[in-house]
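Figure S7 source data.
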Amino acid sequence: MGRKSNKGKEKKLKRKEENAKLAQSYAKVEAANKIENPMESLAAFKQYERNGLNLTIDCERVSNIDPSLIDWAFQLTKTNMETLYEQSEWGWKDKEKKDEMTEEKARYLIVKDQDGKPVGFVHFQFDIECEEEVLYCYEIQLESQYRNKGLGKFLMQILELIANKTEMMKVMLTAFKHNHDGYDFFTKTMKFEVDLISPEASLYEESYTYVILSKLTRAGKRAAALAEAAEHTLEHNGRCMSSNCGHAC
Ligand SMILES: CC(C)(COP(=O)(O)OP(=O)(O)OC[C@H]1O[C@@H](n2cnc3c(N)ncnc32)[C@H](O)[C@@H]1OP(=O)(O)O)[C@@H](O)C(=O)NCCC(=O)NCCS
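Tokens for the predicted coenzyme A complex:
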């Protein structure tokens, strides 16, 4: 009897490792979703006093937000985005957007002025995307007179801090290519990059009007460095083995 190949065992081991990793990712998302207030330890970020603005920022679950505030957020999104959606393959649908904005897992950063009037918001969720734990930014919308004063950047930085604290791998979002200001804001100001899962990243899909952008968190950078090191070791071992014993590994 010859020696049995190890390939089957290796595959099984790899699958086991992948399943364990996925279980870990789900556990992290579940833990993040249980946190009552992700801004609890970010007291310094609850106030925005720059460029003539004096605003407060709170983080709330959608279930704790007054329906009239959700209506305002929906109307602001519609005002800012309807035309851009109409120019895309998706079109604008009130009900779909309302349903998305009120999904159970939805969290909001709500920005208010000194009189308690809302002036901007971020809708985000902790979720699994392509087997990775991510903080997905669904929406960032500011009333027009509050733009270009650094507030958008400040809010995105809060998201990055929350994603770091909850050990998500990335902050992720979908952006329209034809929303030039928004696209520049994410890619140039916030340094987001086209994600591997974006249709843009594929050679064969050039006709989409949107891209999926992402930015690695601390945990994401660590994981990427480990994966790169593992790949390097594998390549290196492969070369050594092939030169020493003639086996392709
Ligand atoms: C896209 C959006 C969220 C960006 O937020 P914002 O507050 O306007 O952006 P910021 O002011 O933080 O940053 C934008 C630029 O303005 C600059 N800026 C900051 N403070 C400034 C000031 N006082 N005066 C002029 N420019 C300023 C920033 O430096 C940045 O430019 P940079 O590329 O040189 O860094 C906001 O414009 C918006 O709500 N747009 C409509 C909705 C939308 O398109 N949302 C995105 C899709 S979901």
